[in-house]
Amino acid sequence: MESPSLLEMRGIAKRFGDVQANDGVDLTLKCGDILGLLGENGAGKTTLMNILFGVYAADAGRIAIDGRIAHIRNSADALAHGVGMVHQHFHLIPRLTVLENMMVGQSGRGLRLDRGFALGRMREIERSFGLRLPPDARVGDLTIGEQQRLEIIKALARGARILILDEPTAALTPQEAEGLFMALRAMAGQRMGVIFISHKLHEILAVTTRVVIMQQGRVVAETANDDTVSKKRLAELMTGHEITPPSKVPTTPGRVRLRIENLQTRGGARPSLKGVCLEVRGGEILGIAGVSGNGQAELADVIAGVLPASGGTLEINGTKVFRFTPREVQALEAGRIPEDRMGTGLVTSLPLRSCMVLSRIRERRFSRWGFLKHRAIGRFADQQIRSFGIRAAGNHVRTGTLSGGNLQKALLARELAWEPTLLLAAQPTRGLDVAAARFVHQRFLDLRGRDGAIVLISEDLEEIFALSDRIAVMFEGRVMDVLDIRAATVAKVGLLMAGVREAA
Amino acid sequence: MTGIRLELRAQSPWWLNVLLPLGAVGATLVLCSGLVVLAGADVFTAYSKLFLSSLSTAFNLVETVVKAAPLVFTGLAVTVAFRAKFWNIGAEGQLLAGAMAAAFIGAREGLPAWSLVPLMIAGGALAGSVWALVPAVLKTRYKVDDVVTTLLLNFVLFYGMMALLDGPWKDPLSGYPDSPDIRMEAEFPILLRATRLHLGVLLAAVAAAGVWLLLRHTTLGFEIDAVGENPNAARYAGIHLAAVTLIAAAVSGALAGLAGVGEVAGIHFQVMAGLSPGYGYTGIVIAMLARLNPIGVVPAAVFFAIIITGAEAMSRATGVPVFLADVIQGMALVTMLAALMLTQYRIRLNRPGHE
């Protein structure tokens, strides 16, 4: 018997100013489906899901759940209809514990919060889907993967039967992603429906039952995930043309751009570095792999001058630095793409033009005697918007209204504009679509070709392997090993990531 | 069935900056009209007295402008601080610090006459700065909450001042808890004969232009905005957080201090308990009404000056208590905060289920 439709969206349309974000979109989800929603940044996937979750009102179209028309005006309506969503950016309260976060927004008995009830729901969900978390851990201490698990548990606890996951694996290690997939399959096995937005084609292939591809606000292709579907085919359907991997030409390593010796930090709330030694030369990309929370972020912050080191030496372009400021690092021709674009990279409430010059406002080019050169700033911003293909209505738009991929391009445009000779990039393509990620990668390779050095911190092993000349693996604040790309395999790196050193 | 929802705006259109405060003021007056009715007066008469009496004669007009001067200063002070997210609730204390410095310098017999006015201005600004830097240092160095410290330091300063006025600083001639009068040469020159239009009014206008220039056209203003909007990103971008916060606090305190200088050198010629009827707090309302825009501070300050001066005329004519002016101030803050949401979001009416 044909399984009934859990969700039907028909003729959904949504316009933002001049952009038709959704243009007559039809989408069907059956019980037990894991639907992969694919498309480039700005194709309208997130808009469509936000309409389903009640964040936006559709200009036209209707939504039916279990065959009945559903009026979803806000997220409470969505939850009441059994629609749960895990956003790219989590909505958790770091100071509270896992259990307390579970109880936020849930009705207790009267004013008293019902711990026992929430705990019971957690246990049930653990039994049904294998999703487990320590109830009394502080959310701020959880890894990104664990925080995401909490978001999923929260959605399930509120009775979600349709679960929307927007870029769920962007910040996960391969192992964590596999754990997530198991949970998703368990949900599908219990006749739930899952909508899975991702840019990682191999994951779409691995976990979904059907794939819907969107382009410029429309559904352009829909296919069952069977043997006829390949990564290459999906990429072509998505972009409308063939994708060629970036070409990596051999370079000869030049002068030392960054030398780190025995670098240490005091831990406190963050993981500490325990004697990190690294060296990166011009014309070289050093990939830093590791499960998140093993000191990569701290290493990046020390090099950027934000986190003070407690010992060791750091040398950028031949200058030894110990206690220094971000501005001094910039003066040494070092650029930085921070991991958290919205938090530490850009000021989302300021206009795009301000973000484009944030770190360089004191330079002659943009100010003189302390006075801003507004025209020069505007010209520069326009030029960067053009050359990096940033989709924005102008240089005055509020930065926060740009999509994730465009935010990343803006950050890249800012940091690469000054031709740094050392670039520190953390998770540079997290949440980016194939075309945008390829664009970023090409810029890195261009810089490498100009004798620039790049430190690429990434949890995406595919990216690490595609770009790096050497791979350093971090574990518990130490560099386990540095492998030449020719000698490195995923298995070797994976073992090192888990802290296992192979017997020689 | 119609629903209302809020959507994020890509850009707030410029006319909102004008429309919103006007709307907020309108809503405030409607809401406060209930009180007027309760006081047994006719709403229209009361409001027309409130607004028109301060503008009716040339004398009243000048008085209103004179009243607006300290409000412009405190409004600007709060604007600069709030833009950097330094929650300076202490403009009142900084104003008094400036006033005390001015009164002290202005009464010094040993100083040459020509130096008195410039020294009072500089000294008052400096005193305001120092008083604002205390909570700013506590915030940047020890992460002490600035709302609490700036607010409480107002009382420290006020009662400290009263202790001085009742003791060593008491005017020996009058015997009241007032400071001795400043010297004649220390009084601000009068710009318009036979009125109280003093130099401080001009200074306030210049200050508004100066703050606009600072925030809109200088790297410091740019950095103040960046620090205020996202301190983390600002720090990663190489902006020195503590330095920017301290400078913003110092500028804010100096502006509030100048409000005090103007009151001493242009109006009262001494400090006493009633020197400021809460100008520092009204400055917060003014800054919010102006959406932290220094040019907007001027009309907002004039508006409150009208209400404050008009309240007495209204009270005399209709019997509505003068405290209505205070209620309007408070209510305006509330309605403006509500209206501010509309600058970031647009309201959409949506009719679900259209096919």
3D structure, described in words:
The complex is a heterodimer of chains A (about 500) and B (about 350). Chain A is of the alpha/beta class and about 500 residues long. Chain A folds into two domains: about 5-240, P-loop containing nucleotide triphosphate hydrolases (Rossmann fold, 3-Layer(aba) Sandwich); about 255-335 and about 420-495, 3-Layer(aba) Sandwich (Rossmann fold). Chain A has helices at about 45-50, 75-80, 100-105, 115-130, 145-155, 175-190, 200-205, 230-240, 295-305, 325-330, 340-345, 350-355, 375-385, 405-415, 435-450, 460-465, 490-495, and strands at about 5-15, 20-30, 35-40, 60-65, 70, 85, 160-165, 195, 210-215, 220-225, 255-265, 275-280, 285-290, 310-315, 320, 335, 365-370, 370, 420-425, 455, 470-475, 480-485. In chain A, the strands form five sheets. A six-stranded mixed sheet of chain A has the order 6-7-8-3-9-10, with helices on both faces. A six-stranded mixed sheet of chain A has the order 16-19-20-13-21-22, with helices on both faces. In chain A, α6 (about 175-190) links the parallel β7 and β8 (about 195). Chain B has about 350 residues and is mainly alpha-helical. Chain B has one domain (about 5-350): ABC transporter involved in vitamin B12 uptake, BtuC (Orthogonal Bundle). Helices cover about 70% and strands about 5% of the residues of chain B. Chain B contains 13 helices and two strands. Chain B has helices at about 15-40, 45-55, 60-85, 90-105, 115-140, 145-165, 200-215, 220-230, 230-235, 240-270, 280-290, 295-320, 325-345; strands at about 5-10, 345-350. Chain B has a two-stranded antiparallel ribbon with strand order 1-2. The longest helix of chain B has 28 residues, at about 240-270. Chain B is globular, with a radius of gyration of 22 Å. The chains are: A alpha/beta (about 500), B mainly alpha (about 350). The interface of A and B includes residues 336, 348, 351, 372 and 398 of A.
Number of helices of chain A: 17
Give the CATH architecture of chain B: Orthogonal Bundle
Q: Structural class per helix/strand content of chain B?
A: mainly alpha
In percent, how helical is the residue content of chain A?
A: 25-40%
> Rough shape of chain B?
globular
**Biggest sheet of chain B, open or closed, and with what strands and sense?**
2 strands, antiparallel
Bin the helical content of chain B.
Answer: 55-70%
| CATH third-tier fold name of chain B | ABC transporter involved in vitamin B12 uptake, BtuC
The first-level CATH class name of the largest domain in chain A: Alpha Beta
What kind of assembly state do the chains in view correspond to?
heterodimer
Strand content of chain B: under 5%
Low-confidence stretches of chain B: 351-355
Extended strand count of chain B = 2
